[in-house]
Amino acid sequence: MSSQINYVFAGDIGGTNMRAALADRSGTLIERGVCQTEPELGLPQAEENLRALFEEVASGVPRDEVGGVVISSAGPIDPDSGIYVHPPNLPGWHDMTMKPGLATSLNLQVTIGHDATLGALAESRYGVGKGAQHLVYVTLSTGVGGGVIANGQMVTGAHGHAGEIGHLLVRPGGQSCNVGCDGCLEGISSGGGIARAATIAMSAGRASSMSDMTGGDIEAVSAQIVFEAAANGDPLGREIVESVIDAVATGFADILNTLDPEYLVVGGAVTGGLQPYWNDLKALVEDKALPHFKGSVPLYVSPLGDDVSLVGAATHAFDLADSRSG
Question: 130-302 is classed in which CATH architecture?
C-alpha cells in the first residue's frame, strides 16, 4: 500500500445529474460537486463538465496524493473501454467514451464502471451487507439497475453487462422500457415507467386526482405524484402502485431464486415511494420465491442512500490504486 495515496476521485453519471467527489481511505466523501448531465448536449460536453467538477473538489489537495479516478455510470457500458452500449437514459452516447479524454486532462488512471455494480461493492464493504460474500444491489430510480457480488468479487460478465436486472421479464406483453423490452422490470417499475403508466391511463380517459395535482397537465405526472395520489386513496394511483409492487416482487423473487444472495439490498428514489408498502412487498416476494426463503427473505433498504455508487467508486479506486502500487 502506498503511503502517498491518501485520496481518490469518485464520479457518478446518471440520466439527470453528474456528481464528483474527493474521497479518503475511510470511504468518506470529503468534498463534492454536482451538475446536470444534460445528455442531449452530447458526451464531449458532459466530459468537460465532469472534468471541471473533479478539479473543483480537488482544490488544495496535492495531486500526487490522488490515486486515480473511478466513475460509476448508468449503462450498459463496457468497463474496459468505458464505451456506452445503447444506454437508455443517456441518449446519443452509444459507442462513445470519455475515459481517454479524462485520463489525459486529469493525468490520472480512469476507470468507468456500471453504477449498480459499484453500488453493490459499496454495500458489501460499508453498508447493511458489510462483509458479505454474496450480495445483490438493486436501484429503483430513473431506470432500474443491479449489481452482483459473488465470492466477494464484482460480477461484470463477458461483456461488462452483467447485472442488467432492470430488463428481467416480469410481465410478458406489459409496458416497455426505453429500449423496447416489453414487460421488463424497468418498463413497469422505474420512475419513468410509473409516470408513463399514469399518463397513458389518463390520456385514455381514466379520471384521477393526479390531473388536479398537475394543473391539468397530465404530461407533468411523476412517480412521486403517483405515490402521493395512491396514499390519498386515488383509485388509479393505487392500481399503478399495486402493479409496481407485483412487478418488483416478481423480479426480486427471480433474483433470490437464481443467485441465492445473503443480502438483496435496494436503493433509489422509487424505493422511498415503496416504503409504506414494504411489508406487503416483502410478503409477496416470499410468496413468489422458492420455499427455503419462507420466513427469511434477505431484503434490505440501503443505508448508504444516494451516495452508494460514489462510495463504491471510491472503494474500487483505492483497490485499483493499491494493486498498481504493489
Answer: 2-Layer Sandwich (3.30)
Task: Report if pTM > 0.85.
Answer: yes
Instruction: Go through the chain and tell me how many residues it has.
Output: 326
Condensed to tens digits (0 to 9), the pLDDT of residues 66-82 reads: 999 999 998 788 888 99
Instruction: Specify whether the backbone of 38 is left (phi greater than 0), alpha (psi in -120 to 50) or beta.
Output: left
Find out if CATH 3.30.420.40 is the number for domain 7-121+306-324. yes
User: If DSSP codes are grouped into helix, strand and coil, which group holds residue 36?
Assistant: strand
**Cα(253)–Cα(74) distance, rounded to whole angstroms?**
24
Q: Give the span between the Cα atoms of 159 and 179, in whole angstroms.
A: 18
Contacts of 27 (CB under 8 A, 6+ apart): 122, 125, 126, 311, 314, 315
- Give dist(CA 154, CA 156) in Å, integer: 6
What is the rounded CA–CA span in Å between residue 286 and residue 296? 8
All CATH 3.30.420.40 domain ranges of the chain, comma separated, are: 7-121+306-324, 130-302
Q: How far apart are CA 37 and CA 47, in angstroms?
A: 10
Per-residue b/e over 174-206, b at no fewer than 16 CB within 10 Å?
Answer: bbbbbbebebbbbbbbbbbbbbbbbbebbeeee
Query: What is the Cα–Cα distance from 35 to 50, expressed in whole angstroms?
Result: 8
> Tell me: the pLDDT tens digits for 281-305?
999 999 999 999 999 999 999 999 9
Q: How far apart are CA 220 and CA 201, in angstroms?
A: 14
State the Cα–Cα distance between residues 29 and 9, nearest whole angstrom: 9
How does 138-150 read in b/e, with b if 16+ C-beta sit within 10 Å?
bbbbbbbbbbbbb
Phi, psi (deg, nearest 5) at residue 300: -140, 150
Of the candidates 230, 236, 170, the residue with the CA atom closest to the CA atom of residue 203: 236
The alpha carbon of residue 185 and the mean position of all alpha carbons in its chain are separated, in whole angstroms, by 14
